[in-house]
Design brief:
Layout (H helix, E strand, L loop, with lengths): L6 H49 L6 H13 L4 E5 L4 E5 L9 H5 L9 H16 L3 E4 L4 E6 L3 H72 L3 H25 L8 E3 L1 H19 L15 E3 L1 H5 L1
Antiparallel strand pairs: 1-2, 1-4, 3-4, 5-6
Helix pairs in contact: 1-5, 5-6
Length: 307
């Protein structure tokens, strides 16, 4: 069974569309979890508040105080309980230490807070009210207001969509870069293959031309020729030799060059000679002068460095 010609494009569409669908489903499911956590937190807070309203009637009982303290710390929910006058009575997981002095709580004035600790508790309660509607608990003996904020788990779930989006965009970025590198690699492979094929195709006619030049030189040595013809044959031999070097360069594309100790001056002189002979046709109105001292041998590829 033959694969479709547009298979790479179909794979890209499959990956991108599949990622979008998966992230959308994950975000929707996470939204449902956050909503359920919010409802559960509100229900737990209301039940706990009703429990406190009942137990606070006998708050002087030491065993009841210890029991209320244990229940409070077992609930993973930040909240502040105030009385009908707005004075903080209990709080949990808001980063403020507990106060055991009942007189300090009773004497606190919410309108003119002079106690810095209770002032922080009251400010936290007001911040909670901006997020969640406070719950009022009415009993025969007293009235209490529960100010509660999001639990740690709810906060983490609320941040989860943004984390998922960030991961999704990073995934898309790396996927795009990966596809781009793959495309560039394929193009390079094509160019390398074409270069090696061109070098291979040039090799046969160049060898034939060199053979014909050798025959012409032998014929000139036997029968003689004009200086102009001899110079033309020498020039053609140099051009064919240069084409051979170019063919060798193309055949080495994509391969590691073989480095050998070489003298640098002859390579520079060949380059200067190449431009000097073409200077009139290139309309270059300048001269090139080479002045070098003795140079050490360098490890290089002679053909590539000359190129």
């Amino acid at each position: 069974m033959r694969a479709p010609r547009n298979l790479p494009f179909l794979l890209k569409v499959y990956v991108i569309a599949g990622s979008v669908v998966l992230v959308t489903l994950a975000l929707y499911y996470n939204h449902i979890l956050v909503r359920r956590m919010h409802v559960q937190a509100e229900s737990t807070t209301r039940l706990f508040s009703m429990f406190l309203a009942i137990e606070l009637r006998d708050v002087q009982d030491l065993e009841r105080q210890e029991f209320i303290r244990d229940v409070r710390h077992s609930i993973n929910l930040p909240f502040v309980i105030t009385d009908s006058n707005g004075r903080p009575m209990f709080w949990n997981r808001i980063g403020v230490e507990d106060i055991d002095e009942l007189r300090r709580l009773v004497d606190f004035d919410p309108d003119e807070p002079s106690d810095p600790v209770l002032g922080r508790v009251l400010e936290t309660a007001r911040n909670f009210d901006r997020v969640n509607e406070p719950i009022t608990i009415e009993t025969e003996e007293a009235s209490f207001v529960i100010h509660y904020g999001p639990s740690e788990l709810a906060s983490e779930l609320a941040a989860a969509p943004y984390i998922q989006l960030a991961v999704f965009f990073i995934y898309l970025l790396f996927g795009f870069l990966g596809f781009r590198m793959l495309t560039i690699s394929e193009q390079r492979s094509i160019w390398v293959g074409m270069a090696k094929e061109a070098a291979h195709q040039l090799g046969t006619p160049l060898s034939s031309i060199m053979g014909w030049i050798s025959l012409m030189r032998e014929e000139i040595d036997r029968s003689g020729a004009t200086e102009k013809l001899t110079g033309a044959i020498d020039e053609a031999a140099e051009d064919v030799e240069r084409l051979g070097r170019i063919s060798a360069r193309f055949s080495k594309i994509g391969s590691l060059p073989r480095l050998e100790l070489q003298e640098l001056v002859p390579i520079i002189e060949e380059t200067i000679d190449y431009f000097e002979r073409r200077r009139p046709s290139l309309k270059i109105h300048s001269t090139i002068t080479l002045e070098v001292d003795e140079l050490p041998l360098i490890r290089c590829s002679r053909d590539l460095l000359g190129w």
